Structures are given as C-alpha cells and as structure tokens.
C-alpha cells in the first residue's frame, strides 16, 4: 500500500490532491479548487473552477462576484480522475463542509474549520472515520474550554434588561457569527427588533434566502438614538470603537468570540461585555473528535499546533504540523 502522503500533499498555499490535480482551500488561484466554506481565509476568487456546497458558492458569489461553481450537496459524491470526493457538514457556518477524499483504498478528511456545539444557522458536524484527519487547532490549548452558548446569550440579555437606557453593541464577524448571534437570541425568546450595521446586511439577507430565520432585522443607521435604547445592535468588530458607534445611546460594548476567554484581548478592544461564543471547536471538542474518529494520522493546522500534536503523541496517534499560509481566525 502506498504511503498516505504519496497522493495528497500540503503546500504553503493549500493542500494538493495529486491524482485529481485539484487543491483544497488554496490561497492562490488554481485551475481546480475544492472549498470547505466561505470565510476569506479558505475561499478566494480567481479559480478556474470551484467545487463547494451551494451555500458556500452563494457566499463566494456575494463576496467576489459570479464564480465558475460546481455545487456539491451534503452527502453527494463525485469522481475526479479516480478520486472519490464528497462533502459532509462541518458545523462551522452556513454551507461549511468537511471534504472527504478517497483514493487507493485510503480515506482523508479535510475538516476545514469546525465546531461541535449546536448552531441554529448551520448543519451539525458529522464525524467520519478516516486514515488521515486534517484538523484545525484555532483553540488548541487546554485553557480554551468554551461555556454553553445559551449562558453567554443570557448574560447579554441580562445586561440589556439592567440598562434600559443604553444599548448593547455586539462586535461579530460578518459571515456566520453575526447571524448565529441573532438566531441564538431568537432561541432565547428575544423577539425585539435587532439592529445591524450596513456591512452585515448582504450576508444576513443571504442567510434568510437560504431558510435561516433571523426575525426582525433593521438598519441601525436609519434609527434614532431613542429608538435604539434597550436594543441589541450588531456590527463588525472593526466598527465597535469607531465614529459610527458614537451616535448610539451609551453603548455597552460587547464582543462575541472564543478569544474573549483571554482577558487581555477584551481589554485591548475596550470590550465591556466579553461573550465567549466561538464557531470553532474548543480543546475538549478537538480531542473528543480525534478520539471519536480514531484516525491513523492527524495533520494539524490553523492555530496552536504544538499542544494538539503533543496530545496525539500521548494517545499513540501519529501527528504532524502543517504550515499553510493565509489562515486567520477572522475575529472568531
């Protein structure tokens, strides 16, 4: 049997599947690109052809203009020059997928970014047994153990109710996090209008078009200060402390991110209400996933590789670090 790495190879710009002459999440334009999800550190424009879920292709169209896309539904499989390829849910954002590639009797799963927590805006992660599992490690340190999402949303609502003359301004990344915060608020019974920064509008509309119920969303710029008292307002993290936010009624500045576990990060952003809500797996979810999938080998990228590689060694799992360029946390 050929070595596992003989037909799939990591390069700084992406993962190359040799028999298919295709790249997974390439950071440079390629003739054939297989894309796990729509975040800009995984989905770039300029490829000759893109295979992705219909939702990811819609996100790429929204961001980069029309793409030469080949939609692949969850569970659908196709062959590319002798390689069997399928997409299964990753639980990260709308349309996010793990890419399963099989060749020569071996199976490799490229997880992209993933989480194991329930999320009303996307399909849940599906564990797939495999020979090689390529995993992220954004929060690959034991210090990162995320609290329950509902408890963080309840903290937000409590602060809002305690301060009816103020508003809560939540910094949330435009793709995935903003829509999840809205949906989680609705799940906790918050049916009030939620106000959004204009930079979030297109992707919120796209989520609604794909059947994700977000309720009454209104543009924050069209509302007066009195209307915004006692309301939740969402904006990109970059707008939390800029001139745009100064027109709001004494905002309680919040940030929804797994990085809010680190107090220094909250202080650096002048965040009054840090909300530890992540779209990535925490330490326990990463290690539980590896235990559940039981791969022969693990390739680790996108974060704190050393600790997870050490954990693998302690559990007799062969592991290696990948050095892919262009992978950022995108204000998780």
UniProtKB/TrEMBL annotation:
Domain Metallo-beta-lactamase: 2-173
MF terms in GO: exonuclease activity; ligase activity; RNA endonuclease activity
Entry keyword set: Exonuclease, Hydrolase, Ligase, Nuclease
Superkingdom, taxonomy of origin: Bacteria
SUPFAM superfamilies according to UniProt: Metallo-hydrolase/oxidoreductase
Ranges in coiled-coil conformation: none
Presence of keyword Ubl conjugation: no
Protein name: Ligase-associated DNA damage response exonuclease
Natural source organism: Allosphingosinicella humi
